[in-house]
Target: S-layer protein SbsC C-terminal domain-containing protein
Amino acid sequence: MPAKTNLIMTNDIHVTAREIDFVTRFERNWQHLRDILGIMRPIKKQPGAVLKSKYAEGTLQSGKVGEGEEIPYSKFVVKEKDYAEMTIEKYAKAVSIEAIKDHGYENAVQMTDDEFLFQLQTDVTGRFYDYLKTGTLTSTETTFQMALAMAKGRVENKFKQMHRNVTGVVGFVNILDVYEYLGAAEITIQNQFGFQYMKDFMGFNTIFLLSDSEIPRGTVIATPVENIVLYYVDPNESDFARAGLVYTVSGETNLIGFHTQGNYHTAVSEAFAIMGLTLFAEYIDAIAVITIDETPTLGTLTVNSVAGTESGDTKITVNPAKENAGNVYKYKVATDAVTVGYGQNLRNWSTWDGKADITATTGQKITVVECDGTYKALNAGSASVTAKS
Model:
């Protein structure tokens, strides 16, 4: 007598177990990464939702207000820029019956499933690392240690300016830079689920050790953990099932759907995965990208002086424009041009907004310096003053 209709066969149980194992391992890896980063619960998005990177800008008005005078408002705004649209991404792989015969099930199917999972995971993290490289808190330091320190300090300072709390900072560095810096020192590197990282190193909650393809040597990237968000599209949406596309998922947050089947037309074992997963840093101006240059040189500014609007004032123009919106101009007027060295701290020099006239005397020398957010000199130039008589 033939088997009854809809009887669950041994092969059905094996296939379902394979699907459950795949999605469970994938979600376990991402849960582990979330634990390392300190990310809270992932945020569910609908397909087509547009992710926007944000940055804050504004000018603090002078607080020197006379008695009874009206206090000017300081205007600060948060601007947005489209980053990516949430989409469902589709992947597939197939293993032939000949490969299973020649190499056995474990090698032909299970090991390729492992590599399939790893590549899917790497695709998401790779896009995240590329996005981090576009962070706008940029500067150059002369040592790896200083680059780490300044990366952490700059993102913490940025979040303070935004009146947001920082519970921890995550760093991303090239693994060869770490070993070169530490030399033969004993360090504890954790390696789990494809991620290499160090905990509680030089004030960072976590520092990820990445390859040359993920982050170039001589670069340190950092951002607060509060700035990192994981967005996802649920692959188990009812509309997909109504269309006849049913995928195995796992957990409360369905980050990936997986389905396997045998294709008798081609005698191959097929595997299909769909996911809509984006690891994202919300504020692009709270990502520090620090470059290490052991022999940096001071850049050159072309400074021009013409008569200003009021008597005794000069109008200054500088070329090229600032390298970074977070950089500041400092200046000094003296009998002779002032010599400045790269990285010199010019906090006590006068600040110039790049527009206002400056009071000076014709024939004096004005030295203008572009500094980073910590007042370290990056580029400088001088000119003879021409003031309105």
User: Anything to note?
Assistant: The chain has two domains: 10-55+84-291, 297-384. The helical segments are 10-37, 97-132, 144-161, 175-182, 238-242. The first helix runs from residue 10 to 37.
